[in-house]
Amino acid sequence: MYKVVRAFQDKDKRKYSVGDDYPHKDAKKATNARIKVLSSTDNKYKQIYIEEVKTKADKE
What we know:
There is one protein chain. By secondary structure, the chain is of the alpha+beta class. The chain is about 20% helix and about 20% strand. It contains two helices and five strands; from the N terminus they run E-E-E-E-H-E-H. The protein has helices at about 30-40, 55-60, and strands spanning about 1-5, 10, 15, 20, 50. The strands form two sheets. Strands 4-1-5 form a three-stranded antiparallel beta sheet, with no helix packed on it. It has a two-stranded antiparallel ribbon with strand order 2-3. A hairpin with a 5-residue loop joins strand 2 (about 10) and strand 3. It is globular and about 35 Å long. The two termini are about 15 Å apart. The mean pLDDT is about 90.
């Protein structure tokens, strides 16, 4: 799961605010390429927009 750390509007015109889950439960599943772009500075604005959230199951 990913959390938004910088507000943005996605390509599908959905607005995400800091603290929102990404992708939204009603949105299409995000591709690995899209997640890579949003979770790194490898994008037009050189900003990180989402971060992976580790769940209890991930830690075990």
